[in-house]
Amino acid sequence: MRTDLELADIFREHGAAWRNANRGHVSFDQLKVMSAIERCRTAALGGHVLRCEDDACGHMRVAFNSCRDRHCPKCQGSAAREWLADREAELLPVPYFHAVYTLPSELRGVAYQNKRVVYDILMKAAAETTLTIAADPKRLGAKIGITSVLHTWGSALTHHPHVHMIVPGGGLSPDGERWIASRGNFLVHVDVLKKLFRGKVIAMLAEAHAAGRLRFSNGLAGLADARAFKRFLGPLRHTKWIVYCKPPFAGPEQVLRYLSRYTHRVAISNRRLVAVGGDRVAFRYKDYRVEGAERWKTMTLDASEFIRRFLVHVLPKGLQRIRHYGLLANANRTAAIAKARELLAVPKAEPPPEPEASAKETTPRIWPTPCPCCGKRLLVVEVFGRWATPRHDTSPPIVPIIRIDTS
After folding, report:
1. What would the 3-class secondary structure string for 5-31 be?
2. In the chain, how many domains are there?
3. At what angle are helices 226-233 and 190-210 packed, to 10 degrees?
């Protein structure tokens, strides 16, 4: 049994056989993701030669380039850090709530066959629900901001589409001249959110079907008929949909910690992989029916089933899984955040000084991580292309670096 695994190892070992066995049933997007993960941080993508700035140390190593695919477990760490640096400047000194909207199990098959349309409906309906209820004068009566993240998986890699939201505890008054704060540990009542969310999703699905934007196959082929689809949606109008809103975080630091875990998470991280042996893959998952440390369990699947489950969560090209609404919408984010900070009496942050042009031209490129031998800076001394051999002397042997950043 092999340990200290990466998802790329499983794809390299079992991917070719899986693609051959499922020929004609794998999407182009899924094939691209598999290929990117298999080649990530290998000579296939080229890289950089790094050298310690201290000549006495002389440490050198290669940093192979990342694939930067949003489904790759190795690439999302640096992407999250860059994204969080921008979000940190937008935080307000108010409580932040965590809301979750889940698509019912009855709709998961429809969602899988119509990812682009249904995932978009899920995110839009959740955002419109939250904004509408918060703006109601009987509720909060304010225009709020939302950071929304789409997840499509359960802990065991099952298909479980849901949306995580971070919502500031308050917003701007309708005239934009006051900050209206939420009441303590309460944002809005989830029962109200559930009903409106349910209605919006069902209405949007019916509209998409009428416009011919939904496609059905296999066991769901009958839903192409308008009357059959209407009958299918009928019972969903009377079931309880899962929506919840947690109490606020303790402070901005916890908000950022949460965002770093959720915004760039993929279906499974390398840390959760336990072992692979023969045609079996073991990984850790969380059983939410159990409390405490015992909820972490180990599941073993055939490698083919493990790959299938992972690829279920490949998103269509161009589908945005991180979105901002209300005060945080891209169109008016800067002005809205500035106004909120003014009303909350938050001092303006001074931007860091820009280096002079001459300094930019002469300063060598510094690698983000320090030299593992002496702790000083690593300098980029060479950039080489795909499958190319570095010009620099590789004796003693260059050791591949763990953290990669091609930006």
Report:
1. CCHHHHHHHHHHHHHHHCCCCCCHHHH
2. 2
3. 170
What residues contact residue 196 under an 8 Å CB cut-off, 6+ apart? 129, 132, 133
Closest CA to 333 of 88, 90, 79, 86: 90
Question: Do 48 and 158 sit in the same domain of this protein?
Answer: no
The half-sphere exposure of 173 on its side-chain side, counting CA atoms within 13 A, is 8
Q: For residue 82, what pLDDT is reported? A: 73
Q: What is the pLDDT of residue 349?
A: 61
**More confident call, 368 vs 33:** 33
Whether 360 has a pLDDT exceeding 70, the answer reads no
Residues 252 and 364 occupy one common structural domain: no
User: Domain residues for 218?
Assistant: 93-267+317-343
Query: Based on the domain organization, do 171 and 229 belong to the same domain?
Result: yes
CA 198 to CA 126: how far, in whole Å?
Answer: 9
Please indicate, yes or no, if residue 377 is contained in any of the structural domains.
yes
Same domain, 405 and 322: no
Question: How many Cα neighbours within 13 Å face the side chain of 407?
Answer: 8
Task: Assess whether 107 and 255 both reside in one domain.
Answer: yes
Which DSSP letter does residue 313 get?
T
pLDDT at 406 over 50: no
End-to-end CA distance of the chain: 36
DSSP string across 147-208: EEEEEEE-TTS-EEEEEEEEEESEEE-TTSS-EEE-BTTBSS-HHHHHHHHHHHHHHHHHHH
Domain match, 248 and 390 both: no
CB 96 within 8 A of CB 169: yes
Spell out the residues 6+ positions from residue 78 whose beta carbon is closer than 8 angstroms to its own.
66, 368, 403, 404, 405, 407
Q: Which tens digit of pLDDT belongs to each residue from 162-178?
A: 999 989 889 999 999 99
71 & 135 share domain: no
